[in-house]
Amino acid sequence: MRTCVVTLVAGLATFSVGCTDNGSSAVDRGDHVWKAQTDALEKARQVEQVLHSTARKRDERLEQSQ
């Protein structure tokens, strides 16, 4: 029984230390596990906006020429 209590206390202590906020989070700095993927998604969104804008301008020119 004592072993279970010691293990539980040690686990809770480890968990509480691991979950503390030290003020310099990697996410706050913009660094995280999926940074490359989120950067690629952002770039894709920008390209999508350019493509939509270009298509809209093309459609407007086609309407004006008819």
Count helical runs: 2
Shape summary = rod-shaped
Q: Roughly how much helix do the residues carry, as a percent range?
A: over 70%
**Chain oligomer state:** single chain
Instruction: Please report the total strand number as a whole number.
Output: 0
Residue-averaged pLDDT: 83
Note the main sheet: none
Q: pLDDT under 50 segments (min length 5)? A: none
Structure description:
- The chain is rod-shaped and about 85 Å long.
- The longest helix is centred in the last third of the chain and has 31 residues, at 35-65.
- It is an all-alpha fold.
- The chain has a domain at 37-66.
- It contains two helices and no strands.
- The model has no long low-confidence stretch (mean pLDDT 83).
- The chain has helices at 2-18, 35-65.
Features:
single chain, mainly alpha, 73% helix
List the helices and strands and how they pair.
Blueprint: H1 2-18, H2 35-65
Explain briefly what this protein structure is.
73% of the residues lie in helices and 0% in strands.
